[in-house]
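Data availability excerpt. The first of two example chains:
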Amino acid sequence: MRCKRKDLIAWYVVFLITLRFLFIQNGFAEGPFSSIDSFDIQKVNWYNLDPVKDSVQGASIDRTYREILSELKPAKKVIIAVIDGGIDINHIDLKDKIWVNTDEIPANGIDDDKNGYIDDIYGWNFLGNASGENIRFENYEYVRIVRKYDSIFSHVSSINELPQSEWENYRNYIASRKKYEAELKKHESEKNYIEFFEKAYYKASATLTSYLGTDTLLPSDLARITSTADSITLAKNFMTYVFDNNITLKELNDFKQYNSDYLDKKLNKNINFRAVISDDPADIMDTGYGNNDVKGPSPEHGTFVAGIIAANRNNNEGIDGVAEHVEIMVLRAVPDGDEYDKDIALAIRYAVDNGANIINMSFGKSFSPQKKFVDEAMKHAVNNNVLLIHSAGNDAYNIDKNMQYPTRRYIDGSEASNYITVGATSNLLNEQFVAGFSNFGQKNVDLFAPGVDIVSLYPGNKYNSASGTSFSGPVVSGIAAMIWSYFPQLNASEIKDIILQSVNRPEKLRVFYPAEKGNQTRKIRFTRLSRTGGIVNAYNAMVLAKKIVSQKQLN
């Protein structure tokens, strides 16, 4: 161990920030476990609690059922299309809440309902082929752009060398290449950090177990070390830091795999994962692909999202989802990496054409080369009274300045009217109320919802805890479905307006400004981080919905 102690400690800090912020804060943090009893009780179902009655900054779901809906009868089941990475439709806490295409006869190899999809019983998988092969990983969009245009633009020194028809492609290429090179450098550095830490960990462990004459090293063993030899002291300091910060070998290996997936798959421009499908991603009419495997090889994220929306509230199992009278239509279009615009557009169209009322979109990316496909699909949704709900993203960006896709704004400058964008909050009404990773924006984020330390479903009848705006969006989707199931006479625009007009607005609350690197120092009024300046509240929304419906009936 040749590094000086101060150099090691400085590196430990870098490693810890990288490990905790990049991996833990934006992914699954605990588990999975077979029971919710394994979690801190304060985490389980907190998003259902009420700021006033429970002194927890949830979305007031339980209070709404208890004080308002107990006296009302639902009028219809609302269908929510979840466009994601796949869902475990057989999860014990979800299996009775899955949409079924009753016009299709299972497993007969025939498109019975003539909708263009064979045996689409629970939805459709746009990340596979007819032989049952499925895509799990994908490049990021900027990697695909670099791969596509490298041979064309890599030697161009000025945009003026190109015809004007190529200017937009060239600008996208330059921006993509800049991001690609920065991300590649960052993750290669992380790989070096991991390798350094791993070697130091094993050497320190070996040094101390040899000194103590033991096979394993426990935190309590460190107190028995009295040697002042440099090698023993350095090893002891190292392991003290490791134990004090609860860095485990499992966590290290998980982060190692996370880093490897970035370098070998998502950032690897030499792999074309789309070859499995053999379509033309730039041709929206080339639709002869996909299969009915709605679970796919990586249903963790989608299952978690679906659980927040619809986990059974009355089965004495696991967690309580937001909406009772709801069915989940499963649309697999989001790989581990960036989604293709074409797949998202086709998934939106499928949802609309097959009866979905709400579309939950817990995904996003920074480049959208076929945005016109998504725009047209969203217009189709708006024209058919479908509500679109999108998670804001986990980059700590002001998305008024750093565009994230999809977006409510069309290429022509107009906006989708039935569209809500959601940021993430914690259960603490203090300076840490807004998640440090959450995107924000007074123009492009509508409101915030619970999204930190959420416990939800995990494949295989298990449960997990995670943080992300991906899990704030489903809270709002569930509330929208709750309102619509009791008041079906409302339209999508009215549901949106009710949700936005009924937010809680902590007027004086100042919060840490979301920070990409996790270094939160500046503060800002919470009300300045979104259009409404508020957090979703089901109770307020249902009160307002009742009032509006009553006024309609009087008129």
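And the second chain:
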Amino acid sequence: MSDIIQLLPDHVANQIAAGEVVQRPASIVKELLENAIDAGATKIELIVEEAGRNLVRVVDNGSGMSETDARMAFERHATSKIRSTEDIFHIATKGFRGEALASIAAVAQVELKTKKKDTDVGSVIYIEGGELQFQEPVQTAEGSVFSVKNLFYNVPARRKFLKSNNIEFRHIIDEFQRVALAHEALEFSLYHNDEVIFNLRKGSQMQRIVDIFGRKLQPLLVPIKEDLGWVQLHGFVGKPEAAKKTRGEQFFFVNGRFFRSPYLSRAVQEAFEGLLMANYTPSFFLYLDLDPEKIDVNIHPQKTEVKFEDENLIFALVRSTIKKSLGIYNVAPSLDFDRNEKMDSFFPSKPDAARNYNASSINVDRNYNPFTEATPSRINETAMVNLTEMYGQNISAAPSKINLFEDEEDELEEDLLRLPNGYWIFNKEDKTLLLDLGRIHQIVLSEKRKIKTKSRNSQSLLFSLEYHLNEIEKNKYRSIKKYLPDLGFDMVLAEDNVLRINAVPEDLKESQVIKFLENLFEILDYKTEEEFLENYDNQWIKVNAKSKYDFLYKPEVEELLKEFIKLGFPEYTPKGNKTFLEIPVNELINKF
């Protein structure tokens, strides 16, 4: 039998290795920016065309390279950072494995112009598909200019799987932000298709965060600082009102390197326990500094994961420091030393005392949520027992309704009763139902939106509203601007990234406009313009829909139920959540 194992050609091996390092244009951005920082640059420019498909160029004023180093930089496993295995555990720079430039050059056309300080001429080198085309002297500024053109030109299958320009550029912004946030003492700028996206001055961490995410975030940030000697933690967390459902503004850094950690993210979440609404996550910008020997940054090809020597101690540090800072800045609940003790009798602290205080009141388990059960079989017993105490025990064997209306001439024949936990009891024909009016309201609003035409009527505002965009939001706004007039908006992007709003859709309240825009910009993360149109109505419904706790009065509920009945009284929302439960009346009878 003939031998079948053979060595791969270098160009094939390089293309395979490139798959670990170069996944998309943003991968190139990360590597080139980090190289510029390692070269000691104080000013770095990133220039991108067509979301990096056609060009990614990084210009820096760093130390530059000699003619020999420029050529060696593109060899696999060529690096100036390590000489032995032990050096890996003392790394204080960004890149060190010597694979990035070789991998990039294997799948693109790469040009490097570089010049060291105090030399007369520099060197230009051009590599295409991993093959050196030429290298020669050139007049150029001190530092380096890396130009990566036509990514994946020789691997069409990889190029075909790149996403839309909007999505790819969003990934580039992510990488740019991570590097810029970790190095506030350096100047950074980003240009896309000859348009300035970011122009970041050097300054403090707070200035860098505000320059990237906008002035409106500044008053919502709480400073974090703790020094244990062997580890320092500093940065900022957002107040509860800055929390979002998406995990956008969440950044961990260790020794100037961005990393992800679900474990430490949980420490932040626990520090905010009791301060956030369900499904909301806090914003944070947290920086750790410790001995490089106590961390391993080489456990992930993109070095976005870090292994700590003692992760449990880091977890405790993050959690306790944030809780302390929230207390210092009066964000977390604190003891009230001005409390009038005479009022204590009106607010019993023990559950048993509360239950005995007024035996005739309706007492229910507020944590009980029958709508989360797949096949609920009964309503909260406490609520039904107290209903019986209020209205008597004359429940007959056959299903019947308790007359809860004061006026016998109410339009709906069915009777209604609101429970303290926000749900309503509704006697419909021979059935007794438990309603979630929040979900019912969403369905009614959704159906009303469907019958409207694509072009919405506008209402002019007496005074224009202003919304301060950060650079990311400005980019998102431009991607959807062409759709807004048909939706009923009249907006103008003025100086200082101020979005001036002159008119809004007639079915959008003026007080809801800013929140609505914030929701729109959130859903545009990693989404195309087409997906924006699909999500537009959903966001409108979220802004306008009421929760079950907002329905307090019977006439409003009656009007809503009339609309719901016209729709056929659907049992489920489009997402599969129940809108009502049927209460087994026979089971209630057995309770008595």
